[in-house]
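Quick one: structure tokens for this chain, please?
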Amino acid sequence: MFPTLNATGDLLFLERFSVRFQKVNVGDIVVACSPENPRVLICKRVLAVEGDSISVLPEPYAQDAAKNVLIPKGHVWLQGDDPYKSRDSRHYGPVPYALLQGKVQLRIWPPHSWKKF
């Protein structure tokens, strides 16, 4: 999620009710279990929710290879803020709500970088 969040050292406050009741909106930053390795947590931005259609470039450099994806019920489309280095829904597809762990509300560490999301 660089540059929004640092790669290491940030401490985030998560709110878990939104993801349990599927009240996640486009633009929210969420923490989820990785669809590729459930032991790993990922932090990504929600770009589309169920029922949305999104035009996706599989690789940021491939301007002519866009494809349209309809987000199925019970899923969201997650993408990192740095498309050149992020491994996200462009690689593993829509993510089920069940893998979402929480919605980021605040960055509380380091103290000089407090920020509400």
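Strands lie at 11-15, 29-33, 41-49, 53-56, 67-70, 75-79, 95-96, 100-109, 115-116.
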